[in-house]
Write a structure and sequence with these properties.
Blueprint: H1 13-32, E1 34-38, H2 41-48, E2 53-56, H3 62-68, E3 75-78, H4 82-93, E4 97-100, H5 107-119, E5 123-126, H6 141-149, E6 153-160, E7 163-165, E8 173-175, E9 180-185, H7 196-200, H8 203-223
Helix pairs in contact: 1-4, 5-6
Length: 225
Amino acid sequence: MSETRGPNNRLSALQRAAIALGPIVLLLLYATWRVREINGKGWRTLRRESRPFIFALWHGQLLPLVVRHRSQGVKILISEHRDGEVIARIAERLGLASIRGSSSRGAARALLAMCDALSAGSVVAVTPDGPRGPARSFASGTAVAAQRSGAPIVAIGVAASRAWRLRSWDSFMIPKPFAVVAIAYSDPMTVDAASARAAAEQTAVYERAINDAVTLAERTLMSAG
């Protein structure tokens, strides 16, 4: 179940079909991928110790990670617009929970829900450049939530040997069947700031961490030939 349900539940027939068939298609597609995990020890140690933390990733790389981390109890921050409703319902069918809100709509409520989830010991996944961009720009809410809760941030980067890319603001990536998908994780990063304002001023650090993870994933694919 989601933390909150978006206000617009009037979905088109196409959107309802996407909700019904999307999880099945994604699982079938994922079964063909060859996934290579890089530097996963940090986040796996946090999970083994039942410690809360934040996964931070770019919006355009969300899809393979939703499938990769399915049924792990991760709570994902998803925007309140209608497209977000579709993503939220698909994510829930894959075993993730959703927290609704974004930097543009429901920001204060989303920040509070994130902090509550982290304080309760949950893992929260956030796309700091979502839902509308600018692409690969780290909004401050994630750093503030980490500072308030004391939960570390783990940046994630994804690269695929073959992928479709949508003509959207984030060049949304869908790895093709039988693609090699590299997923790179940063070491857990604690937001060392005395206040929320100070944490917000450190966003460049975490933006760079995600970009470094993306670069590491890309280099892994290149070295693998």
